[in-house]
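Priority: medium. Attachment 1 of 2:
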């Protein structure tokens, strides 16, 4: 038998395996993302019950099976975030947050800041309605934790402050472009309004945001494009999130 470990983890995904078992993707504070084989999880309600549902915070006992796979020996719910599960908009946001986390990080690389940020965001959803700017904050925090933080205070190309003139955001170059460098933007570059740039800077500093629906839609599109450039694809949960967007408070 391999090494054993006791971890605090969020369930990112749970996939049925055969008629009796499941493979779960966990994001742990101590060891980062890992896959665990839950023997008998489907055939016995007594063994794991509802513990392995996505975006559940649990304490897990695991045994290394070899390669990148662990065996899940026992698990107990630390926080189930049950309140958010009765609201479609909050489910959509939580699903997006866990999929974004799963896609941004590599296996077995601890990201304590991202883990704490994910748990904090799930707690926000559990305690109140889904708010668009809370999700924008989580996106920025997730990008920062993964080493992909967009440049918002200095031009992504020349490093100088963007100034007060018209600015563009180029996800391929990694952030905002000043007026002088705006012409170097690629196909995905787009204008970014002063209000949205200020709002995103405030979120990046950890401050609050006062902005309207128009600014929110622009910020969503800009960060969405940034994430898609880094991942090379559009997340499945983002499509669901866009469908329920009008339901967000």
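Attachment 2 of 2:
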């Amino acid at each position: 038998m391999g090494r054993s470990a006791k971890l605090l983890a969020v369930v990112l995904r749970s996939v049925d395996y055969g008629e009796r078992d499941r493979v779960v993707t966990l994001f742990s504070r101590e060891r980062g993302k890992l896959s665990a084989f839950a023997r008998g999880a489907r055939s016995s309600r007594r063994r794991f019950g509802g513990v392995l549902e996505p975006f559940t915070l649990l304490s897990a006992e695991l045994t290394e099976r070899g390669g990148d796979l662990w065996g899940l020996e026992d698990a107990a719910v630390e926080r189930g975030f049950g309140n958010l599960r009765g609201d479609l908009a909050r489910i959509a946001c939580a699903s997006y947050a866990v999929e974004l986390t799963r896609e941004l990080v590599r296996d077995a690389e601890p990201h304590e800041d991202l883990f704490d940020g994910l748990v904090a965001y799930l707690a926000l959803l559990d305690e109140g309605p889904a708010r668009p700017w809370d999700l924008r904050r989580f996106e920025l925090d997730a990008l920062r934790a993964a080493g992909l933080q967009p440049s918002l205070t200095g031009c992504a190309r020349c490093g100088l402050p963007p100034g007060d003139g018209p600015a563009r955001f180029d996800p391929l170059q990694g952030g905002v472009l000043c007026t002088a460098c705006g012409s170097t933007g690629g196909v995905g570059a787009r204008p970014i309004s002063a209000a949205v740039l200020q709002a995103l800077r405030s979120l990046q500093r950890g401050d609050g945001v006062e902005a309207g629906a128009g600014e929110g839609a622009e910020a969503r599109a800009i960060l969405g494009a940034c994430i898609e450039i880094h991942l090379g694809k559009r997340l499945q949960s983002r499509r669901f999130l866009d469908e329920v967007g009008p339901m967000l408070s």
